[in-house]
Amino acid sequence: MSDPTPALADPAVDADAPTGAASSSDEADLLERVRAPEGRGREIRDAATREVIGRAPVHSVDDLDAAIARAKAAQPAWEAKGHDERSRLLLEAADRVDAAADALARLLSREQGKPLNGPNARFEVGACSAWLRTAATTPLDPQVVVDDGEVYAELVYRAVGVVGAIGPWNWPMMIAIWQVAPALRMGNTVVVKPSEYTPLSVLSLLAVLNDALPEDVLIGISGDREVGARLAAHPDIDKVMFTGSTATGRKIIESSAGNLARLTLELGGNDAGIVLADADPQAIAEGLFWGAFINTGQTCAALKRLYVHDSIYEDVVSALGALAEQVPMGLGLDEENVLGPLQNRQQFDIVSRLVEDAKAQGGRVVAGGAPAPELGELFYRTTIVADVADGVALVDEEQFGPALPVIRYTDVDEAIASANRLDVGLGASVWSSDRDEARRVAARMQAGTVWINSHGGVHPMIPFGGVKGSGYGLEFGVEGLKAVAVPQVING
After folding, report:
1. 292 lies in a domain?
2. What is the mean pLDDT of residues 418-445?
3. Which of 133, 199, 257, 328 is most buried, judged by most C-beta within 10 A?
4. Which residue is catalytic, options 27, 124, 196, 266?
5. Measured between alpha carbons, how far is 338 from 4 in angstroms, rounded to an integer?
6. How do residues 302-359 score in pLDDT, each as one tens digit?
């Protein structure tokens, strides 16, 4: 099998991160810095083997309040350093991440479950460094809005204050950096709450970053949902950044009403792809596969329902099924694997339920369709389900795992209507040999990003965000910097 990473990786991301095995002491040193004392905290298990990795601290609401107070006190001095000095320190932080890259990747692989290789753990740590560097070096100059000889006015962007960053468990390190890097660059201080499922990875990353940053500029708080709710509602939080489910996003909106915190919400998606009749099934098969199964399908903007024209339907289904049977799945620390387990039991049960329901409604299992207990407790075989339609739960609900429904269509207008009918709109894709026709179809799709002949790739300079129930606000590039700042007009 060819290496999937180059087709998916952004050119700014070093997909060839160091591959030599880190010593166990490197990982142990990271864990020692962040884990709770023996007998305290919450057990965190290896997603693949279910062995205990360590114990994560469980901070309280009082701990959170104290952290926010520290971040608020540190913010004016951090903003006063100016863009040049903040950028210098972020670049130094990126160097620290590079130096600890393999230890971070191995811890991430164990806690989240994604393998080291392919578009997975080493890829994710490399992306952390790349996004830090981009946030540090992207210019954001004052914008002159009027200069007519009588009136001069310019628009500048200043720090919001204290940013609360609430992250998910699927790409825990990378998405934390998506939130942290631009916020710090713009002069904010940040309080980070990682997912309860993957706290050790994120806390370790923050510890590495803090080796380069002033005290209390970046603080991690590992707690339960009560802590997350308090973070969104806290009167001294000026901006909330959240990546996760639409249901939780709605609760954050409600929680933030009292403090009028600004929001960036990247919420659930059920991304549709449309394969036009002129597409070459063999040429697009690998791109379709990795669009759907990157991180074993546990990606917000993964391809989750695929509409294929009747004339090439069986060829596309067959090509995807063959890849599903070939791509190696197993323990993440085994260098040959590129697919791993579901991260947690709840998500495993969702995937199992949706596949069983599709089978009961006449879906044809082309590959997979069942757990893989010989690999471990939370492994589910890479699954392609054909001959399903809109209305089947596997199509209508976000599976967030290794199961892709493939739906047949005959009229492209019907396919576009199907793609747009759900109340989500994070990403979408169009696959065709005719780029102009693909762009015409893409313009009719209701999604924050529509890719052509690929799916799910992100770039640190290309804005990213959802529409409808997939949230609002933009991340990345200049727009991402503006999103963690407040505009100010200097008039005169």
Report:
1. yes
2. 98
3. 199
4. 266
5. 9
6. 999 999 999 999 999 999 999 999 999 999 999 999 999 999 999 999 999 999 999 9
For the stretch 160-185, pLDDT in tens is 999 999 999 999 999 999 999 999 99
Q: Is 260 left (phi over 0), alpha (psi -120 to 50) or beta?
A: left
DSSP string, 350-405: HHHHHHHHHHHTT-EEEE--SB-TTT-TT-B--EEEEEE-TTSHHHHS---SSEEE
Average pLDDT for residues 456-475, to the nearest whole number? 96
pLDDT of residue 461: 97
Asked whether residue 119 carries a pLDDT value surpassing 70, the answer given is yes
Same domain? 79 vs 27: yes
pLDDT at 9: 35
42 and 172 co-located in one domain: yes
Residues contacting residue 361 through CB under 8 Å, at least 6 positions apart: 388, 392
Same domain membership, residue 441 and residue 354: yes
3-state secondary structure of 141: coil
Mean pLDDT of all residues in 57-70: 97
Amino acid identity for residue 171 in this structure? W
Please report the pLDDT score of residue 25 as a whole number. Answer: 52
**Residue (of 194, 184, 197) closest to 220 by Cα position:** 194
Q: Identify whether residues 207 and 226 lie together within a single domain.
A: yes
32/30 Cα distance (integer angstroms):
5
Please classify residue 313 by burial: count the beta carbons closer than 10 Å to its beta carbon, then call 0-12 exposed, 13-18 middle and 19+ buried. Answer: buried
Identify the three-state secondary structure at position 45. Answer: strand
User: Do the Cβ atoms of 368 and 383 come closer than 8 Å?
Assistant: yes
Structural domain that includes position 47: 7-267+467-491
Using one digit for the tens of pLDDT, what is the confidence trace for 371-395?
Answer: 999 999 999 999 999 999 999 999 9
Rounded CA separation 170/152 (Å): 47
Please confirm, yes or no, whether 266 is among the known catalytic residues. Answer: yes
